[in-house]
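User: I'm putting together notes for a lab meeting next week and I want to include a structural view of one of the chains we've been expressing. I don't have a solved structure, so I'd like a prediction I can at least talk through. The sequence is below, exactly as it appears in our construct file.
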Amino acid sequence: MLLKKHRASLLAAGMFAVAATGASATTMLQMSFDDLVADSALVVVGEAIDSRVVESAADGLVTITTFRVSDAVLGSSGSVVQVATPGGIFRSGKFLLRESTADTPMFAIGSEHMLFLNSGPQNAFAVVGVNQGAAAVFEGKAGRSVVLPGGKGVETLGEASARVRAERAESDRLRDRETVE
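Assistant: Thanks for the context. Below is the predicted structure for the 181-residue chain, given as structure tokens.
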């Protein structure tokens, strides 16, 4: 009887309690091609050859993927680069567990990507724009290709690399002109 009498009040209190709890969300702005290039210290094309999960007090769980570099499009790199992404898959006893962050790229061993990178945790690089700086390489009609923001759609790796270099040269030219003025 008491429950029936106070059902509406209990329902309202429960709804308020749920609404009052903290909610978290990730909001990601779409980057322009210009911003993607401007925010990158290094742009490479590479194949994922190794992956490991590390944990630290500062960075939490992080996956470090090693890429064999086939082309340093922008900046200079060695023959391999390490890329850190938040979260990862790890074993806990009999269970495989996954910790992930929305829109974080996951790289399969053997996959090839054009990567827009800047400094990241664990002495590795981070992908610019969460997942926006990781373009999968695929076999297109005209050869190995990617799809980058602000482009015509599918571009060959050669076309995409030339566009990245041209954008950096243009932004450097504009910056130099602003410095003189």
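A couple of points you could mention at the meeting. The chain is about 25% helix and 40% strand. The chain has one domain: 33-180.

User: Perfect, that's what I needed.
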